[in-house]
């Protein structure tokens, strides 16, 4: 995949292994130099090649009439490398003969929506969309997500695009790069698409309230955008609906993320939005990740709605609208959540694999085989609804909460966010919940030259055999990922990471003593695997 030098090739191009940039259904790399041990691999030239490859892939997929110029929209989050990568991607798209529609600062869900919106004033719908983001990763990283009107691209598509990109990169010449520079100036149009996206969210809340102009009038709602792309939600969504947003924080885009990691799973981030709610005596707090495809909330008492609690809340709302429907989640959700969905709400809990794309694709698959599912949601905060084209949209999830507040107000209920809190009051929550990461040393002799995947699977197989001989433990009868086991009033799940040489271990139990018993059961099964670092687990069980 290296750039081969020839008389006409560009001599300054670095060698690049494009396939190493793949991260599941995304592309991720280092876009800013200066961090020790993290060499630059997502350069402007690499970006130009990837964008050109996406355009070529799209051309093949659309099999378009050659008389019609196709359009690709580009948006980005607040990262400091965003502008240079947007410019490079624009050159790549223009070099294939496409028009480029630049949105500037945008959210990931908005980029998908731009392939669906029918509005010629905003040059919509576009034929494809690129979001430049690396979610909650550090400031020096960046990456790409790609969309058509069928949704986000999957792993095979990303591999195809990166293979095409390697060939394009290796074929760059001074002449071809110059030609791309020449073409791009006449191919770009800048559009404020976020205005139409925010307007659609406002319309959705008004509609849910019975077309009241300001259904959130009097509600005090604070937003924490973590200096990512979500700052629009306060001024362009909440305020037009009548909400008071004073006390909202970190709305200004800043790609160095000086206040906290924009991540609803991060404890410091959740502490920041909780404190803002309490300090401002707000009814509700809303927090987004960098590119707004994930979110979480906090009620007026400081109680967090994230992870299992957010899933429970969304399940309660969706099952009111679609009684009996199946809720798809990732593999690390709690037993208490299953009881809540199935016994309290009358739905069906379908626990699947980690990875938001896996969860969403499983929701789509269930519908295709006749099992109705309206919500697919991961503990990370990625949640997608059938009514919203199966798009994981953090802003739309929060709109569903706002709809509940607005409709409760319209029907005469008072009490602010208590209407949300009451929906999940019967959710059973564990006394102890931990995640430990057991790393596989890929250079250890015990691997015998095999892959970490093979070694990890051998660990899981051995654990399964051990569990079957322990009468106090019971393996989950239906399980799609790793080994999930119940016992001592709780459960554990040991699984192999999707991308890394790591076996994450989740343990939930009523007490620390019960959690340690579950941990000891794992130790007893895996301690003979010498390439597996179980120091974190050993430390936990010795508490």
UniProtKB/TrEMBL annotation:
Enzyme class: isomerase
A Pfam family that the UniProt record links to this protein: PGM_PMM_II
Catalysed reaction, written as an equation: alpha-D-glucose 1-phosphate = alpha-D-glucose 6-phosphate; O-phospho-L-seryl-[protein] + alpha-D-glucose 1-phosphate = alpha-D-glucose 1,6-bisphosphate + L-seryl-[protein]; alpha-D-glucose 1,6-bisphosphate + L-seryl-[protein] = O-phospho-L-seryl-[protein] + alpha-D-glucose 6-phosphate
InterPro entries in alphabetical order: A-D-PHexomutase_a/b/a-I, A-D-PHexomutase_a/b/a-I/II/III, A-D-PHexomutase_a/b/a-II, A-D-PHexomutase_a/b/a-III, A-D-PHexomutase_C_sf, Alpha-D-phosphohexomutase_SF, Phosphoglucosamine_mutase
GO terms for cellular component: chloroplast stroma
Keyword Chaperone found: no
Listed GO biological process terms: glucose metabolic process
Subunit structure: Monomer.
Domain Alpha-D-phosphohexomutase alpha/beta/alpha: residue ranges: 24-166, 199-302, 307-413
Entry keywords, A to Z: Carbohydrate metabolism, Glucose metabolism, Isomerase, Magnesium, Metal-binding, Phosphoprotein
Family: Belongs to the phosphohexose mutase family.
SUPFAM superfamilies according to UniProt: Phosphoglucomutase, C-terminal domain, Phosphoglucomutase, first 3 domains
Single Gene Ontology MF annotation: metal ion binding
Record-given protein name: phosphoglucomutase (alpha-D-glucose-1,6-bisphosphate-dependent)
Entry EC number(s): 5.4.2.2
Cofactors, names only: Mg(2+)
């Amino acid at each position: 995949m290296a750039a081969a030098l020839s008389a006409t090739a560009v001599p300054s191009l670095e060698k690049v292994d494009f396939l190493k940039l793949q991260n599941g259904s995304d592309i991720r790399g280092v876009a800013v130099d200066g961090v020790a041990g993290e060499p630059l691999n997502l350069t402007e030239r690499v970006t130009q090649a990837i964008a050109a490859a996406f355009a070529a892939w799209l051309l093949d997929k659309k099999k378009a009439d050659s008389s019609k110029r196709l359009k690709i929209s580009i948006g980005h989050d607040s990262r400091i490398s965003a502008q240079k990568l947007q410019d490079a991607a624009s050159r790549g798209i223009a070099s294939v003969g496409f028009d480029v529609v630049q949105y500037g600062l945008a959210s990931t869900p908005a980029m998908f929506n731009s392939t669906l919106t029918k509005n010629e004033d905003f040059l919509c719908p576009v034929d494809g969309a690129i979001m430049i983001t690396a979610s909650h990763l550090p400031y020096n990283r960046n990456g790409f997500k790609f969309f058509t009107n069928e949704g986000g691209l999957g792993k095979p598509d990303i591999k195809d695009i990166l293979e095409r990109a390697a060939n394009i990169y290796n074929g760059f010449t001074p002449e071809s790069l110059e030609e791309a520079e020449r073409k791009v100036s006449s191919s770009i149009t800048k559009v404020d698409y976020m205005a139409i996206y925010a307007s659609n969210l406002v319309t959705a809340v008004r509609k849910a309230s019975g077309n009241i102009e300001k259904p959130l009038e009097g509600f005090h709602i604070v937003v924490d955008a973590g200096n990512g792309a979500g700052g629009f939600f306060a001024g362009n969504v909440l305020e037009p609906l009548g909400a008071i947003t004073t006390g909202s924080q970190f709305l200004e885009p800043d790609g160095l993320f000086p206040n906290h990691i924009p991540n609803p799973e991060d404890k410091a981030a959740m502490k920041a939005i909780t404190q803002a709610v309490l300090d401002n005596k707000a009814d509700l707090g809303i927090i987004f990740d960098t590119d707004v495809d994930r979110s979480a909330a906090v009620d007026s008492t400081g109680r967090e709605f994230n992870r299992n609690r957010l899933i429970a809340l969304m399940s309660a709302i969706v099952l009111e609208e679609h009684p009996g429907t199946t809720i798809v989640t990732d593999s690390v959700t709690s037993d208490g959540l299953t009881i809540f969905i199935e016994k309290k709400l009358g739905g069906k809990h379908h626990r699947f694999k980690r990875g938001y794309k896996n969860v969403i694709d499983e929701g789509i698959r269930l519908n295709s085989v006749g099992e109705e599912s309206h919500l697919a949601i991961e503990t990370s905060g990625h949640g997608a609804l059938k009514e919203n084209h199966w798009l994981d949209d953090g802003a739309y999830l929060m709109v569903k909460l706002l709809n509940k507040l607005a409709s409760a107000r319209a029907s005469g209920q008072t009490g602010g966010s208590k209407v949300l809190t009451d929906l999940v009051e019967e959710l059973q929550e564990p006394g102890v919940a931990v995640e430990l990461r057991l790393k596989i040393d890929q250079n250890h002799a015990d691997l015998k030259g095999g892959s970490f995947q093979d070694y990890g699977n051998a660990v899981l197989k051995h654990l399964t055999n051990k569990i079957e001989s322990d009468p106090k433990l019971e393996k989950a009868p239906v399980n799609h990922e790793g080994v999930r086991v119940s016992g001592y009033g709780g459960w554990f799940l040991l699984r192999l990471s999707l991308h890394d040489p790591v076996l994450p271990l989740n343990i939930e139990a009523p007490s620390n003593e019960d959690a340690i018993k579950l941990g000891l059961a794992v130790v007893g099964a895996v301690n003979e695997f010498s390439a597996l670092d179980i120091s974190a687990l050993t430390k936990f069980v010795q508490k």
